[in-house]
């Protein structure tokens, strides 16, 4: 069976469409779990008497471990297949998600928050699975749509976790118990999704990797995988340029998810629910804007060349940087939300445009490339966290990050390919 060259959105009959839908749902659940703590941080901050430095450490922990896990899961997908890799991540990742509800101190909360960061690697598996299921004509749209819809789990968590906590409190429990009970929900959802993913997906159009290798049947990602895939990807300079660009778009996205609620409460004096809704609107942009970035990338390539995808990414990153500078200087909550939505659109679209390029870097080391680029997003978030810890002020941090994004946009231009046709994945770079 060949890769799909179209997306039949309401179909579940083919392995390609089952993988498309289940991978974005799994990604949604993982991102919901990853960011479930963020909108409740004003409450948790009060309970554990956290300082701004400790909150920064928690935010860094939430994204730091993901760097390592993203580097690992890409090659693991090449070796064992996305089905086994995703199922394992969902099942193992549920442990710290459930554990954070049991935290009794800053130290234990920090430890579980570090563990939860591993579920952020779900993104790499999602992009890998859609990349091996869909052909060049639609792979950018498939990657961006699956990632965008899954990514919206972070926005839904921002908007719904305060409401869920409020509903639990209305049943008669204390606020201290309320946030803990609310945080059990995403952990249970992850365990359920692990079973569903294992039962209803397969690794690639031809079947599962283990069975294909045993039968001697060739398939696209038929290399050795593992460390060999990672080493080959490391040799490709385009992977590292996209590592930087993804750090400047997805890294900013992660940073905003983690600080937005606290920022709106501290700087604009919004209530917890109001701040959650405002912060949630940023994440909910992923429902369409990331897919829009991938779709525009596919359209640009079909009318021009592979480098049309590169040009689009550069333009979106410039827009993101300028919008971030505007957001950092707003004095009213209304303007702040408008500015956040403006730069948020460019941020999400840049994420989609970045991963619309990933399948064309090196087909035989797709997992390695996807892992390196994905890890770049978390490196960007970690650096942003250290920057906030150093400045001690979110607004100043946002301003500096705006300038950093503009500087990083130059790397997008450096990704330019040779005379490769738009609909054909480029060969590995020398």
From TrEMBL:
<feature type="domain" description="Major facilitator superfamily (MFS) profile">
    <location>
        <begin position="19"/>
        <end position="420"/>
    </location>
</feature>
<keyword id="KW-0472">Membrane</keyword>
<feature type="transmembrane region" description="Helical">
    <location>
        <begin position="149"/>
        <end position="171"/>
    </location>
</feature>
<keyword id="KW-1133">Transmembrane helix</keyword>
<dbReference type="InterPro" id="IPR020846">
    <property type="entry name" value="MFS_dom"/>
</dbReference>
<feature type="transmembrane region" description="Helical">
    <location>
        <begin position="239"/>
        <end position="265"/>
    </location>
</feature>
<dbReference type="InterPro" id="IPR011701">
    <property type="entry name" value="MFS"/>
</dbReference>
<feature type="transmembrane region" description="Helical">
    <location>
        <begin position="398"/>
        <end position="419"/>
    </location>
</feature>
<keyword id="KW-0534">Nitrate assimilation</keyword>
<feature type="transmembrane region" description="Helical">
    <location>
        <begin position="50"/>
        <end position="73"/>
    </location>
</feature>
<comment type="similarity">
    <text>Belongs to the major facilitator superfamily. Nitrate/nitrite porter (TC 2.A.1.8) family.</text>
</comment>
<feature type="transmembrane region" description="Helical">
    <location>
        <begin position="333"/>
        <end position="358"/>
    </location>
</feature>
<keyword id="KW-0812">Transmembrane</keyword>
<protein>
    <submittedName>
        <fullName>MFS transporter</fullName>
    </submittedName>
</protein>
<feature type="transmembrane region" description="Helical">
    <location>
        <begin position="85"/>
        <end position="103"/>
    </location>
</feature>
<dbReference type="Pfam" id="PF07690">
    <property type="entry name" value="MFS_1"/>
</dbReference>
<feature type="transmembrane region" description="Helical">
    <location>
        <begin position="21"/>
        <end position="44"/>
    </location>
</feature>
<feature type="transmembrane region" description="Helical">
    <location>
        <begin position="365"/>
        <end position="386"/>
    </location>
</feature>
<feature type="transmembrane region" description="Helical">
    <location>
        <begin position="309"/>
        <end position="327"/>
    </location>
</feature>
<feature type="transmembrane region" description="Helical">
    <location>
        <begin position="277"/>
        <end position="297"/>
    </location>
</feature>
<feature type="transmembrane region" description="Helical">
    <location>
        <begin position="109"/>
        <end position="128"/>
    </location>
</feature>
<dbReference type="InterPro" id="IPR044772">
    <property type="entry name" value="NO3_transporter"/>
</dbReference>
<feature type="transmembrane region" description="Helical">
    <location>
        <begin position="177"/>
        <end position="198"/>
    </location>
</feature>
<dbReference type="InterPro" id="IPR036259">
    <property type="entry name" value="MFS_trans_sf"/>
</dbReference>
